[in-house]
Design a protein that fits this description.
Blueprint (H helix, E strand, L loop, with lengths): L1 H8 L7 H8 L4 H6 L1 H22 L17 H27 L3 H6 L1 H15 L6 H17 L1 H15 L8 H24 L2 H21 L31 H6 L1
Helix pairs in contact: 1-4, 2-4, 4-5, 4-7, 5-7, 5-8, 7-9, 8-9, 8-10, 9-11, 10-11
Length: 258
């Protein structure tokens, strides 16, 4: 695959590889929409390749775990190189996700492949990149909005929300993550109410997924007893699956609901 080829050559022998990926992805929603089908296809391609690279370099359970054809001993070097360029791709995603989330359900269905690539890339990249409060709040709200507008994309949106909910907090995020989660309470509760009102065979799966997201958001941010470690990607008290960081007190409004 392109990702595995890049892992062999980047950054020493293909130094502009990630620059090329960035060139494929539209800077913002206005450029994406005005550029037509060609820009949408290039953007989707860039997002999918970026995600494949991240999942190869940072394998996690069920993702990027195939037998590698590149030298696995290079992983620390590649992780360091990725840490320098992923924030640039995340900025592209921040510029696109809220724009796409404002589309109608019909428009989202028509651009399903692109929007799926956008959400999946956000989930993979945000897992390994420090978040910024304003942009992260807008992106998370966009995922909830897409899940509510477009049933065809709800599964992917809720899966990515689950990844973000269980993402351990980085030290530089401690001051704002609890407030950020608080801002998500109302949109999540409103969407839970919609799913609860749907027929069981239509709304139950999404209701359960979103309820799991809410509980995970709460659980990951409850202060753990000293020595227990932080909650990792599997929900267990471990640090093996993803970046680690301090746990936080439960956000006030979330605590009141639970």
């Amino acid at each position: 695959s392109v990702a595995q080829l890049a892992m062999r050559l980047w950054p020493q022998y293909w130094p502009d590889f990630f620059d090329r990926l960035l060139e494929l992805v539209a800077d913002n929603g206005a450029i994406l929409e005005s550029g037509g089908a060609a820009t949408a296809i290039r953007t989707e391609m860039g997002l999918r390749m970026a995600r494949m690279v991240v999942d190869e370099v940072h394998p996690r359970e069920g993702v990027g775990m195939q037998k590698l054809t590149w030298d696995d001993a290079r992983r620390p070097e590649l992780q360091k190189a990725l840490s320098m360029v992923l924030p640039l791709m995340l900025q592209r995603i921040y510029g696109l996700l809220p724009y796409c989330a404002a589309w109608s359900g019909e428009m989202l269905r028509g651009a399903r492949s692109l929007v799926e690539a956008l959400m999946e890339a956000f989930g993979s990249i945000a897992l390994w990149t420090p978040l910024e409060k304003t942009e992260a709040v807008a992106a998370d709200a966009s995922l909830v909005g897409i899940a509510g507008k477009c049933p065809d994309l709800a599964g992917t949106a809720l899966e990515v929300l689950g990844i973000l909910a269980s993402r351990p907090t980085r030290p530089q995020e401690v001051d704002f993550v609890a407030d950020m989660l608080d801002t998500m309470v109302d949109p999540i509760m409103a969407l839970l109410g919609r799913y609860a009102a749907e027929p069981v065979d239509e709304g139950y799966d999404n209701f359960k997924r979103l309820a799991d997201v809410f509980v995970t958001m709460a659980t990951v941010n409850i202060a753990t007893k000293k020595g227990n470690g932080s909650v990792g990607m599997t929900g267990k008290s471990n640090t093996q699956s993803g970046p680690t960081g301090p746990t936080l007190p439960l956000p006030k409004r979330m605590e009141a609901i639970l």
